[in-house]
User: Fold these one by one.
Assistant:
Number 1:
Amino acid sequence: MKPYYSHAGIQIFHGDCREILPGLEAVDAILTDPPYGIGASRGIGKYGKLRAKNEPRWDDVAVDLSHLPAGVPSIVWGGNYFALPPSRMFIVWDKGAGFAGRDFAECEQAWCSWPGNARIYRRDPLARGDYIDKLHPTEKPLPLFQWCIGLFRNSPSLIVDPYCGSGTTLVACKARGIRAIGIELEEQYAEIAAKRLSQEVLPLEATA
């Protein structure tokens, strides 16, 4: 398989992760934010303001995660939308005062595959400017994914994101000097991720 992008230990593959994952080398961890089936790509409700022109309908239904490699330490954002095994260790992203009492979720959840205590990450994306020049309708803050990587117990040397979107997982791995593989079905987002990664200088906060 020829990658869509490959540089400095980071690769992007454009295509269906169900077809690409079996051909990859063994990975140490999974960090991903797959489509939940909440209509973000079609502009339903509040998501209409985030819809890009000619947005592909990638979020009509929640994806099937049964094809993810078994036994690999995994963090799956939106874990509450999927039929995943019970877990004691959920991550909660508390979005802070900017989202309190509004018609938006005040927090988001991620499922972890290993046993441990639930953790909370507090960051107000409005106050911190995370949504300025947003590249994907459901893009997560880069510092959040940096923090997630630090939660893995096995100090992974190769992380895969089967639904990499605009490449936040990959950028977080690049800043930490960790090899990463991203897979993205929609070419426009694979291209956005490649452009992000081609930047030689990361924001100072991303390396903190």
Number 2:
Amino acid sequence: MASPTGTLANLYDALRGGSLLAKIDGARVPAHVAVIMDGNGRWAANRGLPRLDGHRAGAEAIKPVVQGATQAGVKYLTLYSFSSENWERPTDEVAGLMSLFTEMLEREIDELDRQQVRVRVLGRIGELPAKTRDAFTAGEERTRRNEKLQLILALNYGGRLEIADATRRLAKEAAEGRREVDSIDVEAVAASLYAPDIPDPDLLIRSGGDMRVSNFLLWQIAYAEMWVTKKLWPDFSRADFFRALLDFQGRQRRFGRVESEG
């Protein structure tokens, strides 16, 4: 049961989120928002809880953000859920995370489908435990026709690994005579990434306060705007998501160009 304090905080956030949503210009909403969900472990440590409790709280924080994305008109939301480096964490933590991924997806898939959210996985899904892999494969198939929001979960994902895999694919095509070496350009690499149909992120959000990209979407975030908050991910709210969108709308994107005078 939620505590009275927690209930009041949730009510305040809902009211604040509604007022912020009203300020968002629907014509200038970023099409693709990517999120580095950092701080679950610190959140748990601050409360004297096991790390997995922090991950569970972080999983719960995803729901209002997905809701906020659909309300604001974001079309793609990519969440950094488990990196290719995370396998080096303690075995019990990794096993707990895999079970949590499966549990949360199976619990939420009906609601995601009802909200017309399409679930996709970005990364080497074939290397995940069979139960987790099967759950996400089923979720992808069930929601593949949904069009309101694409929820992309980066699982067993690393930006360098993705670029290496793309490079290997292009090199194999060249070695087999199916591609000229001189045809390997920026567009060819982009087309060989894990999900080439997904547009590059317009906005990268990071919770937890650290100013780094942590091997996330290294190719795709070349010109993404960044918004960092010191809030740990389990405390991140729908209102925080809207604050990031409003900050994005106040920026002028140049893509490396020099603004003309006059």
Number 3:
Amino acid sequence: MLILVAVLVVTGTIAINLIAYRHAYAMIHFTAGNPRTQRPEKLNFSQKLGVLLHGVNLPRPKTLRPPTDLDPSTKSLRIDCANGIKLGAWYCSGKNTDQLVILFHGYGAEKSATIPEAKAFLDMGFSVLLVDFRGSGESSESYTTVGFKEADDVAAAVNYAKEHLPHRRIILYGQSMGAAAILRAVHSCGVHPDAIIVEAVFDNMLNTVCHRFEAMRLPSFPCAELLVFWGGCQAGFNGFKHNPVEYAASVECPILFMHGESDPRAHIDEARRVFDAVHVPKQFKEFPKLRHEPPVIRFPREWKDVVGGFLKAAENKTVLKTGDGTFSHYPTEFAILTR
């Protein structure tokens, strides 16, 4: 009897690890065919069972819109990254040629997903650079690491802008995975922007994986932990150390957080943890009843007011550094929690 129990335990352990390995592979490797798996909330029972057994299908994100959908003067660029990786990008000069906003998309998306925000920035006079992460759009590769290695892409885009584009100030904007990549780039890649705007940021890799199980109304333990473990092994990093809440302490410039009150992928209390970890002038904007979606679509005027006010304050800041490296004085627009 004990031998049978031991065999069942070992067999079950092997089986669940094999399934987790397959799931992790599917989540970070883009495919060439078949439609994308629907959101977990929309799956019926048989579809959920299929996803549990075979993993999700995530087609490689394609850029189907032309750059002129942003603006007739938009130019396509190629950015060299490490290890021969090439990044696709669109550049459009605004009225304020002194400031450039570099935009980074979220998981399973590509640069055209940030067109609404880029248009809003152009309307406010800023120049914009929309970047495809590795594996997406017009970039090379066919994988994602949910913001970990994409931090190198952020660094490459910033370096390109400094070397080839005529702008004195650089602002980084990122959605979800893009937000995590920005914070990691600041923490690990020596990136020093003049201001940062992050939307729908998650606090750590494990929590964001857990929420996908919650969306299907399934227990996350131990599958989420195994997914993070095997995904990290496949991608060459420790998934349990991919934590924006830890990266945030390295931010040295003004930063704006924007988050949906009802975000099921990155809970708002988790975003506040990342916010609390920042030790420089910061601002948090909560959008009521908003889920994991761009607030500029549902709250265009409010989004513009918040972003415009933040960037104006960031540009006109008065900086007095203290001995411990913190800022002792900033305009009153900063260091506040807005709702």
